[in-house]
Amino acid sequence: MKFIHNDMISGIRHGLNYGMFLLVLCAMLLGGCEINRLNRAEELYQKQRYAGAIEELDRLIKVGQMVPSSPEQNWCDSNSYLELGKLALTRQNIPLAIRFFKLANSAPADVELARIYMNLSQQAYRENDKALAMKYLEDITREIPNSTLIPEVMLRRISIFMDEYQDRNSTWEEYKELHDRFPNNTFEIQARNFVLQFIDSKVDYAMILAEQGYHTDALKELFELAIYPVVQGENINRLIAEVYQAQAEEFVDAQDYLEADRLFRIVLQYSTREKG
Predict the structure, then answer these.
(1) Are the CB atoms for 155 and 191 separated by under 8 Å?
(2) What is the 3-state secondary structure (H, E, C) of 229-263?
(3) Interval 40-49 mean pLDDT
């Protein structure tokens, strides 16, 4: 075929982008209606104007001639899009790089995409646009949930929740998920410092519930706190024992000695844990 000639092959041998070559090869099969645009892409490619060639091919995608769900897309290796994304990235064309990495739909492309989102988030934060910074972090967790950057992303979210919004509830929920998924990870350990700023108030809240007679609710709060390495285990066990004891004494007053005995036995268990 005239579209692929010796000069182009020679260019590949001299280190030009193979992904570009492969995508052009695939794109030529789409039909005559887009041949002019394809010829322009080839001409730009031959002149080593790679960014322009990428833009021409991107227009093909935008008009629906090449989309991830179409049969034509099955002809093209996702590595083509990966390489195109990398090339667009070197040209500082971030939106186009994101588009190609999404089209690649592969683990290596996800790595590149997550890095872009993280860099954009950091840039937005430096520019004091906290909402946009959070949006890019959420893009990572939503689009690339298995990214190796997730622990760092969660730490960044915790930092913004706490430092910028003073949102203790969101900080606590994000930290719990971080610990549950990545216990003792470097970023989880760093995140503890944010939680320690308000963890005492959560303990106090549990004890207020107990004082008001809401023993079940108080125990629920204390049991949750006991899971995470942001409270002293001995202290939590002591407080749990105190709540059970107060509950047992209420059953004594109600002359329900069987239930009171059961609760006093639990008190002894937690008292033993405290001493241990």
Answers:
(1) yes
(2) CCCCHHHHHHHHHHHHHHHHHHHHHCCCHHHHHHH
(3) 65
Calculate mean pLDDT across residues 164-182. Answer: 97
Domains of the chain: 1-104 (no CATH), 106-197 (1.25.40), 199-275 (1.25.40)
The position carrying tokens 């080839």 is 42
Q: Token pair of 224, please?
A: 């949750």
Is the alpha carbon torsion for 178, 183, 185, 187 positive or negative? positive
How far is it, in rounded angstroms, from Cα 104 to Cα 133? 25
> Can you give the three-state secondary structure of 198-238, one letter per residue?
CHHHHHHHHHHHHHCCCHHHHHHHHHHHHHCCCCCHHHHHH
Which H or E run contains 148?
Answer: none
Separation between Cα atoms, residue 75 and residue 231, nearest integer Å? 56
- Residue 110: name the closest of 77, 52, 150, 74 by CA: 150
pLDDT value at residue 49: 64
